[in-house]
Amino acid sequence: MQFRSVLLVVVMAISIPSFVSGGSEANKSGRVSLAVIDPEVALRRDSAMAGPLADAIRREISRANEYKIMDAAVMQKIFQENNFVLLNCSVQECAVKAGKMLNVEKVVAGTLNRTGKTCYLTLFLINVANGRAEVVQEEKSSCGPEEVMQTGRIAVQKLLGIAGPESPAMPVAGPAVNSRFGFTDTYATDGETGLIWAKNADPAKKQMTWESAGEYVQQLNKEKFAEQDDWRLPSKEEFAALVEYAKNRGANRKLDEFYKKTGFRNVRADYYWTSTNDVDIRGLVWMVDMYGGELASSSMTGLAGVWPVRTVRATWKGSQ
User: Fold this and answer.
1) pLDDT tens, 75-128?
2) Residue 138 lies in a domain
3) For residue 44, which of 62, 66, 228, 287 sits 20 to 30 Å off, Cα-Cα?
4) 38 and 149 together in one domain
5) Residues 204 and 158 in one domain
């Protein structure tokens, strides 16, 4: 894909427990040990910022005496000795796999995306044991190298609760991020699943048949909607996760209003198409009601809304 820009910044928090082989310095110093893996940026025009951004994150973490940065060469050696390779996994999946390899408790993984002249950095604090993102922090800035480096430092400060340096920080624009979704002007990153949802939940502004919905999404990709070209219809399970999240927070009805308050726009109080066929009845497809949360199968000639989604895929090789 031409546009996608994925930053795999993985910061592993190693506790002081006995699973750190050979008795680490962290055990002796009483400080939490952290490791930062250099980012991989898929968009070539931004690739030169990957290394400096990782360095900026390392330096910011090192400002706090409670953290000890693991040497990058040691990390690389561990991955090489174990032939550890991460291919075609979501950022969250990659972070969990890396965390388990290193016997760590938490991972900070992130994405760097560009929309026009604005760059968006999203960092996730992920619990390796359950695979869940505990905190999501997003910052945006212009895409100049200095601005992106400063954005990285600010994101780390907020994510890990590190006090910033005394020098004045760059003002941070944009909406506050809730505990699960990080928003840009055009999309939202789901810290629980790693999915990217269109911020506008009704870009077509009308309902359509299932076949037309598929054609519409393909047209969005041709037009590079939100500067991306891999949008698709969500699966039944992906929509069900949205329903469960809302209902677990008391929204048994009016899920559309719940997600509007969360930060999405134009959420329909009606049915949306999924990409999932009903395996029991040929010719039927599942749809989800974003008013009451019901899942129902329908004829492909029925009418429903379109809410595009995409999956960020990270590729990182520890043996490089």
Assistant:
1) 778 888 888 876 666 777 788 888 788 877 777 777 777 777 788 788 777 778
2) yes
3) 62
4) yes
5) no
The CATH number linked to 210 is: 3.10.100.10
Number of C-beta neighbours around residue 164 at 10 A = 14
Query: Does residue 52 share a domain with residue 96?
Result: yes
The two structure tokens encoding residue 206? 């009308």
Phi-psi group of 11: left, alpha or beta (phi > 0 → left; psi -120 to 50 → alpha; rest → beta):
beta
- Find the domain containing 242 and state its range: 196-311
Whether pTM > 0.70 for this model: the answer is no
1 in a structural domain: no
Long-range (24+ apart) CB contacts under 8 A made by 106-109 are 106/12, 106/13, 106/134, 107/10, 107/11, 107/12, 107/13, 108/9, 108/10, 108/11, 108/12, 108/13, 108/156, 108/159, 108/160, 109/8, 109/9, 109/10
